[in-house]
Structures are given as C-alpha cells and as structure tokens.
Amino acid sequence: MERLKPCPFCGGQTIRMRMLDNPCSTFDGKGTFYFACRPCNAVTSIMASSERAAVERWNRRVDKH
After folding, report:
1. In angstroms, rounded to a whole number, what is the distance separating the alpha carbons of residues 45 and 4?
2. Distance from the CA of 37 to the CA of which of 19, 24, 43, 61 falls in 20 to 30 A?
3. pTM across the whole model
4. Model confidence over 13-42: pLDDT tens digits?
5. How far apart are CA 59 and CA 65, in angstroms?
6. What residues form DSSP beta bridges with 36?
7. Edge-to-edge strands of the sheet including 15-19?
8. Cα–Cα distance measured from residue 59 to residue 23, given in angstroms and rounded to the nearest whole number
9. How far is it, in rounded angstroms, from Cα 48 to Cα 41?
C-alpha cells in the first residue's frame, strides 16, 4: 500500500485508516473510510471503493509548501 501523507493539520506521521463497519456507511457501492491522526486527533472521512482508492484520495491534496 502507498504511504500516507502526514496530517494536513499538525504534520503528524501517525495516521490510521479504518473503514466504517456499518451497513449505512456505503453509498453507490463505495465504503466510507476514515483517517485519524494520533497526535492531534483530527478525523476525516473519504468515500472510496477500496482502501487503495481512499489512500489515493487522502494523498491527492495539494501541499502548501
């Protein structure tokens, strides 16, 4: 699996990805994955068809530097 970019809020490197385990967490066949930063506790969700797609969406953001 591709490495996750750091947290966009604090720069933390300890990012956890999980899929919501809930029948209501899917939309058009896509799962809801969430990413949580351990250092600052930021949480964000991403609709994606797979873990790989979720990681690609997480990493797609533009760096500010």
Report:
1. 14
2. 24
3. 0.76
4. 999 998 886 656 555 556 789 999 999 999
5. 15
6. 16, 43
7. 15-19, 31-37, 43-48
8. 26
9. 22
Outline where DSSP puts E strands in 1-65. Answer: 15-19, 31-37, 43-48
d(CA 12, CA 5): 9
Residues 42-56: b if buried by 16+ CB within 10 A, e if exposed: eeeebebeeeeebbe
Q: Is 9 helix (H, G, I), strand (E, B) or coil?
A: coil
State the Rg of the chain over Cα. Answer: 12
Residues, the chain: 65
At 30, which amino acid appears?
A: K
| Residue burial 5-14, b: 16+ Cβ < 10 Å; e: rest | eebeeeeeee
SS3 of 46, please?
strand
Residue 24, both tokens: 């209501």
